[in-house]
Each structure stands twice: as C-alpha cells, then as structure tokens.
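User: Sorry, what's this?
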Amino acid sequence: MAALGNRVAGAVAALSAAVWFDFFFTRPYQEFAIAKAADVQTAVLPLVVGVAVSQLAAYARRMRVVTITSADYLKHIYQTAELAQTSDGAHAVVEHVRDQLVEILSLRNCRFEYGSLIGHPPQLRPRSVPAFAGV
C-alpha cells in the first residue's frame, strides 16, 4: 500500500501494520497493550518503514513525470535542430518553433518579430492587456 498509494495511504497502512502487529504478535496477545521496550521498537519499525517507502514511492513518481517531460522537450529540440539543418529557409523553422511554443506553453497563438539584437535581446512577454474603463 505504501509503495502503490499516495503518502496518506502509505502512512495509514504503516500505522495499521504497527497496530495489528501489537494486537497479534505481542504479549498479551489480542490486546492493544505492549509490555516490553523491545516490542515498542518492533511495533514502531513497520510505521517508520511504511512512511519511508511511501515517501520514496512519491518521489519516484514525481521523478518519472520529470523524466518523461524532459525527454519530450529534448525531442522538440532535436526536431527543431534537424529541421534547421534540412530546411531551405528560416520561415519553416520559425513556424515549427511557433507551433511548438503554442503546444508546450498552451498558448492561443504567438508570433515572431524580426529585429536587431544589438542592445535588445529577444524576449518572451505577454501582449499588453487594455485596462478596464469605468469599473
């Protein structure tokens, strides 16, 4: 449960394992009472392991998403570089990159403006939104 569920499910499963260990495997049997310090340590161990496993599983799921996303971005870069090598003009590359930006950033649209780079580096910025009058 700790490996397959979320963090809360892992913590609940770990707590349940500790409680039922106490109930079934420590004296007095079938009672929620622990008499020895060694039994306390043994009952707490499943709790600690379950929480640790659920944390590691959540981290692994997050890293899987990051890896898949990074691989997808790398694929886009590779496609653009390949197009830049084989294309006869810059227009096809600009359109390809525009389409990728719209897809990746969930934009409605975007455009490329040619300009001078001296003192004015390229920028990504939203189009200015007019202020509401009379509100």
Notes: DSSP finds three helices and no strands in the chain.
